[in-house]
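Quick one, tokens below. Sequence please?
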């Protein structure tokens, strides 16, 4: 039972969410993509959103700015959240600008604005759930893509609720967050994706 509740905190770590989102788009989007573009995009996103942030966190730990990679204290989260938000800004300006890839531009724009909101909460010493921000954001984005192409969204919605509930239970079980911190995390993760999807839907049409 202990493993069951701890597992989602590792499976749905915030760092994995961008590359899972890109992979999910390529898997569910009903348009054929060039395989070379898929691989290059995944490699770039992997290094930008996983390798570089991990190296940054290790540097912070080495210099004793943070105590552990889990960032248990609110004050330890301020710099890493701001750093990741800057990475998202770099991605939407130089890796996936709107003129070259609107699909991922809107996805990472949502991540960028979630990062801004998360930074505001963190600077205000509110320990918002970064796990819930990440998972709710990717769930909202992929769900809306599926619904726009008239897939069976009932199953997708049920799975989304199940995964979010499992992760929320994990964070509470591990005493990492309160219910309020989790709920606000869901809103901060999902709302920017829903907002930017309006522009994406125009492009899809």
């Amino acid at each position: 039972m202990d493993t069951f509740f701890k597992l989602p905190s590792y499976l749905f770590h915030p760092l994995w969410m961008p590359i899972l989102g890109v992979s999910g788009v390529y898997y569910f989007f009903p348009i054929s993509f060039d395989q070379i573009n898929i691989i290059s995009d995944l490699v770039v996103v992997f290094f930008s959103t996983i390798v570089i942030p991990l190296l940054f966190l290790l540097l912070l730990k080495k210099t004793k700015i943070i105590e552990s990679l889990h960032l248990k204290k609110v004050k330890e989260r301020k710099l890493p959240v701001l750093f990741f938000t800057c990475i998202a800004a770099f991605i939407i300006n130089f890796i996936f600008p709107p003129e070259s890839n609107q699909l991922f531009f809107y996805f990472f724009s949502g991540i960028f604005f979630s990062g801004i909101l998360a930074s505001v909460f963190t600077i205000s010493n509110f320990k918002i759930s970064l796990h819930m921000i990440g998972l709710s954001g990717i769930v909202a984005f992929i769900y809306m893509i599926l619904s726009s192409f008239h897939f069976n969204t009932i199953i997708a919605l049920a799975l989304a609720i199940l995964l979010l509930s499992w992760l929320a239970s994990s964070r509470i079980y591990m005493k990492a967050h309160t219910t309020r911190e989790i709920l606000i995390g869901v809103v901060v993760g999902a709302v920017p994706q829903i907002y930017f999807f309006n522009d994406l839907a125009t492009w899809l049409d």
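The chain has one domain: 2-204. The mean pLDDT is 92.
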